[in-house]
Amino acid sequence: KYAKMIESAGATLVAVHGRTREQKGADTGLASWEHIKAVRKAIKIPVIANGNIQCLDDVNDCLETTGVDAVMSAEGILYNPALYSGKPITVWQAVREYTELARKYPPPTFSYVRGHIFKFLHHILLLPEHANVRQLVAKTHSYDALLQVADLLEQFYKKSHTEFKV
């Protein structure tokens, strides 16, 4: 019934999150790929799945499980901006690349940039040894300061990162 309504209303694609209204905040839980699959089967227009996408394997699993035409990510891409590439990226590389893109294509406010950088660095900024970096990110209004953050993190981790590479 709803599938025909959606298509007859002129929709050319549908994005399905796969969560209920109640699944938010601390109660987010997992998205239901089975419900997304049911939507895919019910309509003829393209369907985009969203929910539980944290890495490239999740993208491939979701495509296989649901049969959708595409997969999108919200939170996952904020924590791992290289998610769809399937290639590892260091946090300092992510900060540099994102900062240069934000400088080239400025968002409405710098707080957007800071918020995204906080997501990229979430786990690192929780460590006591990076309290100074956290403060720098929290207080800056400068792209150059964000590039300094990338430099500080690279200096801190470069040796262990190089030794860890196989």
Based on Cα principal axes, name the global outline: elongated
* Overall helicity: 55-70%
Rg, Å, rounded: 19 Å
pLDDT averaged over residues: 91
Strand content: 5-15%
Main sheet: which strands, in order across? 1-2-3
Low-pLDDT runs of 5+ residues are: none
State the separation between the terminal residues, measured CA to CA: 54 Å
Number of strands: 3
Please tell me about this protein's structure.
Helix 5 (91-104) packs antiparallel against helix 9 (143-164). This protein has a three-stranded parallel sheet with strand order 1-2-3, covered by helices on one side. Strand 1 (14-16), helix 2 (33-42) and strand 2 (47-50) form a beta-alpha-beta unit. It starts with a helix and ends with a helix. It has 166 residues and is mostly helical. 56% of the residues lie in helices and 6% in strands. It is elongated. It has helices at 2-8, 33-42, 56-66, 75-79, 91-104, 110-120, 122-125, 131-139, 143-164; strands at residues 14-16, 47-50, 70-72.
